Amino acid sequence: MSVLLFTIIVLVGALLAGLLGSLTGLGGGVIIIPLLTLALGVDIHYAIGASIVSVIATSSGSAAAYVKEGITNIRIGMFLEIATTIGAVCGAIVAVYLNANYIAIIFGCILIFSAIMTLKKKVDHSTLDNSDRWANFFKLNGSYPDKGVEHKYAVKHVPAGFLMMLVAGTLSGLLGIGSGALKVIAMDNIMRLPFKVSTTTSNFMMGVTAAASAVVYLHRGQIDPGIAMPVCIGVLTGASIGSKILLKTKTDKLKIVFAVVVTLLALQMIYKGISGL
Amino acid sequence: MNTPGKENLNDKDIQVILGTLLRAGVIISMSIVLIGGAIFLVHNKGAITDYKVFKPELSKFSSINAIFKGVLTFHGDAIVQFGILMLIFTPIARIVFAIFSFLIERDYLYVLIGLIILAIITVSLNGGLAH
């Protein structure tokens, strides 16, 4: 395939991936990697390198808007970034030495898990019980503005949340994705944050987490300009369009269709991985 | 997020600057990627791609030094890689800024946390772990 044709195909694919990723909340990375590996036969190491770059671009772009609104809890974000960056660097180092087939299998499993997570009804676990010693020590309890009213919230189970973030960071570094689904489990279900705070704070953390693993990928030659360029331009453009549509449309049906498609892609990746072993 | 007794406006200012920093980083680095990409395509549009097998030894720009040298030659792929490097540094710059703002707020615990994150990234940046 010529460079021009390859660039155009990847650009269009990445645009769709970014658009669907932002509409469904799955993120662009989990879609662009199967597309590159299954449809275009790109080695998963290159696909991961390109995807992580697009994760930095989209998360920094949207974090910029959220931070200005004052919803993001910067302290929680930075505190948990210790866990995600350690995890990300470890994950990225393991990925360098891991056989592409194993990565594909793990990727497929996480993809199915993420698809299920997007379909699950979210339950607000937020609490005002500010008795957690760790949360008080690290000053994690806070408040966020919603329609002009300040809502207070407290943080629970900080060590368990921290450990879960270590796992989320490792998978992010290993697979080149934002691993938003795992971060949401850590912050919503374990640490009991309100949705608005957890989604925006998770987004805020993604950039630094991805940068930590991107640095390792860069040194290992996994970030190839020829793939990374159309991927990050496409995903960022798609995600920006998606965030504008998102405000106007209901996405429930889209999520179901999308979860099915993603699951099929995941099964194909797992199958390909196992048959290649 | 506002610690009781601290100036409210201060936190708000920091949030606005932080947001602007992130946005500017993304816009500037993506513009560089776009320019580099255009130059790359003009020169290489007919070349044949081959990404079927991961060949790290063929990577021309896998260190910061190599990227800077490449940019001086005006090769499109080097400029793209430089833009990507700037994009990677955007969230890192955000950490540096956060450290300073916590220093101004005299929140030394979070200055320390910021420095820890920076140290983790610096260790992997030096390539000691990756090579």
UniProtKB/TrEMBL annotation, chain A:
Keyword Cell membrane attributed: yes
Identify its membrane topology class. Answer: Multi-pass membrane protein
- What's the protein called, per UniProt? Probable membrane transporter protein
Tell me which species this is from. Answer: Pedobacter jejuensis
Keywords (alphabetical) are:
Cell membrane, Membrane, Transmembrane, Transmembrane helix, Transport
Q: Name one GO cellular component term.
A: plasma membrane
Q: Name one Pfam family in it.
A: TauE
Similarity-based family:
Belongs to the 4-toluene sulfonate uptake permease (TSUP) (TC 2.A.102) family.
Superkingdom of the organism of origin: Bacteria
State where the protein is found: Cell membrane
User: Could you list the residue ranges that cross the membrane?
Assistant: 31-57, 78-96, 102-119, 162-186, 227-247, 254-271
Automatic annotation (TrEMBL), chain B:
What domain of life does the native source organism fall in?
Bacteria
Q: Show the Pfam families listed in the entry.
A: DUF1634
Keywords, alphabetical? Membrane, Transmembrane, Transmembrane helix
TM helices/strands, residue ranges: 20-42, 78-102, 108-129
Among InterPro entries, the record links this protein to: DUF1634
Put simply, this protein is called: DUF1634 domain-containing protein
The species this protein belongs to is Pedobacter jejuensis
